[in-house]
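Structure tokens please, single chain.
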Amino acid sequence: MQAEPHILELESVDSTNTYAKSHFDELPDGALVAAWEQTSGRGRLGRKWFSPPGKNLSVSLVMKNVGNPFYATVVTSLAAMELLEKNAPGLDFFLKWPNDIYSGERKISGVLCEFTQGRGGVKGVIAGVGVNINLERAEVDRIDRPATSLKALTGHHYDMKKLLRQLADSLIRYYIIYSRSPETVFAEWKRRNFVIGRRVEIEDASGAVTRVFVRDIAENGELVAERNGKTFRFNCGDVRITRESLDFRRLDGIETDSSGNPAENG
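Here you go.
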């Protein structure tokens, strides 16, 4: 893997992840597949990712030296966070377990990581990331879940080519850091994750929703949560950010309300 990113730009494709998986053997480690339009963009849990022409960044990073998709998620989400903070420094962004970036109650970026298989087993991971950049406010309001974009938040129009290069540089940099010290990227990702120390709703694969207090995130990516005084781990599904979650603060690992008073757990 080279420090200089290898970027393959496509005008339109069904999915950058699908393309990268189909061409995995011929693409170098650390290659970035980018498309200015995705006709069948995908998110987690079978959801569609809205990718109109020239409005969003839709890229997939080829990671041939990552055997665990969780760490691919860590690398790509940190790179997307860096891009957003660099281009909108006055705004607050946060990571939401397992793979999203939010501003307030609205999602601005998501990650989808997938194994690639060979005869000998897992060959590597394709890490797809989408970032909403120049979507108008009316366009994000048509998305089926609360969403936003850099333009909707700031009112500014962004140079997509410039942001693509910035994202590519950040992705490669975090991939190199991971290759040298996985614990370093995990520690940063965990530190910046919104859910630790907050009461949230978790939705499992069957659609059942449970209200819990999140104590920690384990090194394998599992949520360590508490409900009715019992601790359990959660590794598949989604977390819902509620207004109550946003109103609560964290102080030395203890949940407090907006006045700074300790809040009841569970």
